[in-house]
């Protein structure tokens, strides 16, 4: 790609060489790229994609077209991913733990290993959130109340076998408290339930805390260090509970996509992820950045799979 | 800047142009079943980045309100609701078109949509922070009862055979359970087909159940699909306005129901027009005409569904919780523009928000001329086109529309299969509407009930959670009882009077 | 039409009720393999459907089948061949377009529907105009889908 060449002379040389070569390999992408979001609009996957959109256009000169393909918690889209043409012009958002847990707990029509992730670009750390007027000032208050009446406290979240469901299970494992997890059809209704007083707490992400502002109080976040946007909110680790994680989001391609294309896409996303404006925008909205490029994605996935396997058994046993 | 300043800003030539373009585009997209407001808005979002925030938002809002309105055309002229919010429009709109009043029906729908959109928009402008509380007061329990209230329409629609109607409703409810359950995570009734994991698509089902039987009837008989109006008949604007003014309370009540129910995230759009239709019919003097071409039915559903546009923006802007998928896309566009929604929005970003709301109101007013013109051409087109062209055209739209929803070929198959089965069922006396109501409301009812059960179970007080401690539920249950019992009492009384005479 | 006395046995109504009885039974039966949360509705609704079906079978056989719901669709069987023809074309369209390709399938199916919906004997010119309209329609919407809305079309053998 000519844009990597700093000196104009080198650029000219590249053009000259390219003119001699039979295949102009430099021109990806030369048409708009379809970016399929396997959820309804408005969620974290959509918002982060919308943040990427202008930067993608700036770097490549091509539009990133965002489309929504909701259904079965993402499974409808992922099970059809490999049917798309592997030319690099169709990419799809992927979410963990969804793409690991769904094949373990249901038959969603795909295997985790069917999905070729080219980049994991951010995660939304789990956060335990209560209303601003809630009696639970700290995580300890909440755990105490949960221990007094096991199962009587309720926590809303988005979906069954989802990141929120996993967070609740991890929380129960680490603290010994029993909290009844109430699944909703998305983050929006789950937060509505919290704000309306239907549930005592909500399992959300730092993004929810950022969007809801003063209406809510975040008791703890599942990060290794405090989120730059929430310097006052403790991590679970600080409070003595080893919970770090959340929903990880990446971008995948159909398995027919050539290696070289995968690498090119990975490079483009890496470039967006390194943009200070993009990082600032993402962090202000509550996202946390990570960088897992294509070369490391397979190993990283194996690590996550091992981690979620145990949780999956507990979730299955709990029903 | 004061309110007049914001109004002036919204009335600038550039913003007016974006509003007009948005309304035209939205109306056309909405009139084509399967092409949704969500899709149109999602495609347009990147273009708005190049515009000033308010202009971009005005265009997106105009597309949205135009698309909701445009759904009425297909519902009236070919009995095909392109979105759940247009289902009840078919009940009276299509019979009106069949008896030669298609132009009147389109004009009535236009007036109703403008009034509904204005009332919804004005409430958004004035009472947003207060009305946003509605979204919070309605819990899972209330969603359940609201869905049941919508389901009582089955009883209304199945006069003559209640049992068959209820069976259709049960079938629809079972169809709504296909796929991965949100609560519990079970994979239900998919027969191992991965295409069914996401459930039966509501829009393909609507297109199939309502439109395929119409197509089947169209090919069977020679002649035109709709009667041509006498030459020189205009928009029938005065006639329609007269009807709207005589049915003034219906219009206002339906708009208010539309706004308030539209506030409920996730459920509002599909329930609002059903509930307001059922209320309009319950309180109407000419009840027997409802479902056979009563203008009042059309007024209620079309004003309610456009009122949901303003209603849906209330939780979106005030709470940062999108009411409907198009709201969610617009919320995403707001975030990218660096606008934080939430309680402080109206103070910190007042100029953009108020300019946007005024723009939405202006777009709603623009719907009157735009809608009348597009509606006139749509009506003339359907009337004048010979069946030999109309049938392939509509058939092509059903295939295209059900495919475009999720880009799944399987949705097209579901559409056709449900259409043919629905046609056969109708021949045996099982009408399509109960099935559709079950399918559309099933998930809302089930999730609401099961969550109330879980929460009640956790707190050790299920009945309290389901009804006893929930005053809003009392009101909804009272409406349910009224809707179900009054017709029964009336039938009994009529029967007794007949026997006495 | 509500009060019209129906005394003939309503055999189609009873047949459909029998099928729906089986559907209800299936729903209840499979609900036992579900989690407690997922099973409440299938079991309740399936049970209700079974009970209603039994009632309806009784009503239908004793001549109280009731008219088609108040949706007033004329229950005539004229033009049955054309009706079945349309159903067949639509099913073929839905099944074949992902295999053969959207444009080709749509043109063939739409042309078949022109023939099905025509009751007269129009001139050759009319036919040609109609086919041209179909070509233009398919082309325009294909362009709209692919170039404006960026909807990925299925890959078939042909276009």
Key features?
A: 319 residues, alpha/beta, D-Maltodextrin-Binding Protein, domain 2, ten-stranded mixed beta sheet, 21% strand, globular, C: 159 residues, 2 domains, 5 helices
Description of the structure:
The complex is a heterotrimer of chains A (319), B (501) and C (159). Chain A has 319 residues and is α/β, with parallel strands linked by helices. Chain A folds into two domains: 31-123 and 246-317, D-Maltodextrin-Binding Protein, domain 2 (3-Layer(aba) Sandwich); 125-221, Periplasmic binding protein-like II (D-Maltodextrin-Binding Protein, domain 2). Helix content of chain A is 41%, strand content 21%. Chain A is globular. A two-stranded antiparallel sheet of chain B has the order 1-2. In chain B, 69% of the residues are buried. Chain C has 159 residues and is mostly helical. Helix content of chain C is 69%, strand content 0%. Chains in contact: A-B, A-C, B-C. The interface between B and C is large, with 80 and 84 residues.
CATH topology of the largest domain in chain A: D-Maltodextrin-Binding Protein, domain 2
Q: Mean pLDDT score of chain A, rounded?
A: 87
Helix/strand/pairing category of chain A? alpha/beta
Q: What's the CATH C level of the largest domain in chain A?
A: Alpha Beta
Instruction: State Rg of chain B.
Output: 22 Å
> What's the main sheet of chain B like?
2 strands, antiparallel
How many strands of chain B? 2
CATH homologous superfamily annotation of the largest domain in chain A? Bordetella uptake gene, domain 1
Choose one word for the global shape of chain B.
globular
List low-confidence stretches of chain B. Answer: none
Instruction: Give the helix level of chain A as a range of percent.
Output: 40-55%
CATH architecture of the largest domain in chain A: 3-Layer(aba) Sandwich
Ends distance of chain B = 72 Å
**Mean pLDDT level of chain B:** 88
Number of helices of chain B: 21
Unreliable sequence segments of chain A: 1-25
Number of helices of chain A: 11
Strand content of chain B: under 5%
The structural domain count of chain A equals 2
Order of helices and strands of chain A: HEHEHEHEHEHEHEHEEHHEH
């Amino acid at each position: 790609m000519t844009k990597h060449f700093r000196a104009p002379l080198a650029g000219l040389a590249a053009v000259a060489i390219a003119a001699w070569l039979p295949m102009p390999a430099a021109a990806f992408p030369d048409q708009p790229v379809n970016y399929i979001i396997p959820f309804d609009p408005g969620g974290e996957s959509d918002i982060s994609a919308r943040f990427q959109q202008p930067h993608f256009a700036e770097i490549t000169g091509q539009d990133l077209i965002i489309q929504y393909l909701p259904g079965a918690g993402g499974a409808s889209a992922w099970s059809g991913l490999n049917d798309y043409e592997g030319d690099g012009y169709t990419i799809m958002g992927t979410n963990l733990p969804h793409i690991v847990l769904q094949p373990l707990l249901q038959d969603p029509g795909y295997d985790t290993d069917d999905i070729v992730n080219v980049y994991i670009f951010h995660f939304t750390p789990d956060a335990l959130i209560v209303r601003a007027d809630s009696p639970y000032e700290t995580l300890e208050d909440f755990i105490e109340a949960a221990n007094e009446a096991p199962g009587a406290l309720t926590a809303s979240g988005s979906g069954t076998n989802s990141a929120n469901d996993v967070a609740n299970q991890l929380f129960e494992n680490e603290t010994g408290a029993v909290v009844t997890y109430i699944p909703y059809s998305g983050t929006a209704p789950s937060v509505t339930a919290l704000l309306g007083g239907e549930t005592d707490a909500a399992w959300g992400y730092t993004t929810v805390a950022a969007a809801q502002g003063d209406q809510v109080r975040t008791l703890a976040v599942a990060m290794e260090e405090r989120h730059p946007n929430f310097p006052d909110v403790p991590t679970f680790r600080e409070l003595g509970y080893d919970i770090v994680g959340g929903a990880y989001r990446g971008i995948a391609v159909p398995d027919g996509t050539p290696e070289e294309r995968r690498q090119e896409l990975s490079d483009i996303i890496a470039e967006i992820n390194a943009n200070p404006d993009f990082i600032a925008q993402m962090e202000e909205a509550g996202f946390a950045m990570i960088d897992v490029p294509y070369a490391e994605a397979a190993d990283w996935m194996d690590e996550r799979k091992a981690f979620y396997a145990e949780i999956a058994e507990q979730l299955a046993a709990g029903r | 800047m004061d309110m007049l300043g914001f109004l002036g800003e919204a009335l600038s030539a550039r913003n007016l142009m974006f509003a007009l373009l948005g309304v035209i585009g939205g109306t056309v997209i909405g009139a084509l079943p399967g092409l949704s407001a969500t899709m149109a808005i999602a495609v347009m979002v990147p273009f708005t980045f190049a515009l000033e925030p308010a202009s971009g938002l005005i265009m997106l809002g105009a597309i949205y309100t135009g698309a909701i309105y445009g759904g009425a055309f297909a519902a009236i002229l070919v009995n095909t609701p392109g979105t759940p919010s247009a289902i009840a429009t078919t009940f009276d709109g299509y019979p009106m078109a069949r008896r030669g009043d298609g132009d009147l029906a389109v004009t009535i729908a236009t007036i109703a949509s403008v009034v509904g959109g204005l009332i919804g928009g004005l409430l958004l402008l004035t009472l947003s922070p207060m009305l946003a509380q509605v979204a919070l007061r309605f819990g899972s329990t209330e969603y359940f009862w609201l869905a049941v209230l919508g389901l009582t329409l089955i009883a209304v629609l199945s006069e003559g055979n209640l049992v068959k109607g209820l069976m259709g409703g049960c079938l629809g409810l079972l169809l709504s359970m296909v796929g991965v359950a949100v609560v519990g995570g079970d994979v239900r009734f998919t027969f191992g087909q991965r295409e069914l994991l996401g459930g039966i698509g509501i829009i393909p089902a609507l297109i199939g159940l309502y439109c395929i039987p119409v197509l089947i009837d169209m090919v069977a008989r020679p002649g035109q699909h709709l009667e041509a109006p006498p030459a020189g008949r205009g928009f029938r604007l005065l006639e329609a306005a007269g009807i709207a003014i005589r049915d003034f309370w219906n219009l206002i009540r339906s708009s208010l129901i539309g706004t308030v129910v539209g506030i409920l995230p996730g459920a509002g759009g599909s329930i609002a027009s059903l509930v307001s239709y059922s209320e309009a019919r319950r309180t109407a003097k000419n009840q027997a005409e409802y479902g056979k071409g009563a203008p009042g039915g059309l007024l209620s559903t079309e004003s309610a569904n456009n009122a949901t546009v303003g209603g849906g923006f209330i939780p979106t802007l005030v709470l940062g919780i999108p009411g409907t998928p198009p709201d969610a896309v617009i919320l995403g566009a707001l975030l990218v523009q660096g606008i934080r929604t939430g309680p402080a929005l109206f103070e910190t970003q007042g100029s953009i928000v108020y300019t946007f709301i005024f723009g939405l109101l202006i777009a709603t007013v623009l719907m009157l001329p735009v809608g009348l013109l597009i509606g006139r051409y749509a009506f003339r087109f359907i009337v004048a086109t010979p069946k030999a062209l109309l049938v392939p055209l509509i058939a092509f739209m059903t295939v295209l529309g059900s495919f475009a929803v999720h880009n799944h070929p399987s949705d097209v198959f579901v559409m056709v299969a449900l259409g043919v089965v629905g046609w056969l069922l109708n021949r045996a006396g099982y009408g399509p509407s109960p099935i559709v109501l079950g399918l559309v409301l099933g998930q809302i009812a089930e999730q609401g009930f099961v969550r109330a059960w879980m929460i009640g179970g956790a707190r050790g007080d299920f009945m309290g959670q389901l009804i006893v401690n929930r005053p809003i539920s009392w009101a909804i249950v009272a409406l349910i009882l009224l809707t179900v019992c009054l017709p029964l009492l009336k039938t009994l009384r009529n029967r007794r009077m007949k026997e006495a005479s | 039409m509500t009060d019209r006395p129906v005394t003939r046995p309503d055999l189609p109504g009873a047949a459909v009720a029998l099928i729906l009885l089986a559907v209800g039974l299936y729903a209840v039966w499979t609900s036992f393999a579900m989690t407690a949360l997922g099973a409440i509705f299938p079991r309740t609704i399936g049970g209700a459907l079974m009970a209603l079906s039994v009632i309806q079978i009784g009503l239908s056989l004793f001549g109280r089948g009731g008219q088609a719901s108040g949706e007033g669709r004329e229950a005539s069987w004229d033009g049955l061949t054309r009706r079945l023809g349309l159903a067949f074309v639509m099913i073929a369209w839905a099944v074949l377009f992902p295999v053969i390709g959207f444009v080709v399938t749509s043109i063939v199916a739409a042309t078949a529907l022109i023939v099905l919906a025509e009751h007269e004997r129009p001139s050759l010119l009319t036919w040609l105009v109609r086919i041209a309209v179909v070509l233009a329609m398919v082309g325009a919407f294909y362009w709209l889908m692919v170039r404006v809305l960026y909807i990925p079309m299925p890959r078939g053998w042909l276009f």
